[in-house]
Amino acid sequence: MVTISLKQSAAGRWRVCRWQIALFNDLPLGSAIRLAREMARDEHHRMGHQVCVKIPGPSSTIVLARYADGIGARVASAKIA
What pTM did the predictor assign? Predict the structure, then answer.
């Protein structure tokens, strides 16, 4: 499974990472979430990989979207977005 994660910088802005590599930096939270979800959908549709978008929460990681095999998984992810 491919993981796209959001990580907060010391300045309070956000970066979008694929595994541990930062692909986009210095984004407001809303823009970072939209971009991460768009990247995940694209990866899933183009490559067929299972993709998960995560952000750190106060006590655990929060899954913002999950794109897995099958129609039901894509529909469930679309409702989150």
Answer: 0.79
Report the amino acid identity of residue 8.
Answer: Q
- Of the chain, the percentage scoring pLDDT greater than 90 comes to 74
How far is Cα 65 from Cα 20, in angstroms, rounded to an integer? 18
pLDDT at position 70, please? 59
Please, which residues bridge with residue 2 across strands?
51
- Per the DSSP assignment, residues forming a β-bridge with 62 are 55
Nearest to 28 by CA among 47, 1, 5, 8: 8
Helix and strand numbers, DSSP H then E, in the chain: 2, 5
Secondary element (H or E) of residue 64? strand 61-67
